[in-house]
Amino acid sequence: MSAVRVALPSHLRTLAGVGAEVRVEVPDAPTVGDVLDALEVAYPQLRGTIRDHGTLRRRAFIRYFACGRDLSQEPTDLVLPDTVAGGGEAFRVVGAISGG
Fold first, then answer.
1. Beta-carbon neighbour count of residue 14 at 10 Å?
2. Using CA atoms, how far apart are residues 5 and 22, in angstroms rounded to an integer?
């Protein structure tokens, strides 16, 4: 097991009652899905805010980043970079902005 740092946007931090970053325990060689699963277990109030309850698909205005790379469209079984898996850099959940 290892700990991954997760950076959350302001509205999700408020909902979860946490600071800018949290740590979640994940298996070695964690995937995007492992991090999201661990985050929802540790902070159940976030269930349904990042991923849909039934399908577990990413919500439309949420993005995931690791090492500056947008992982939002990648499969959730994608293994995270070693820097993120080792806790050196945060896995980032970002609320996308849209408008006209």
1. 10
2. 6
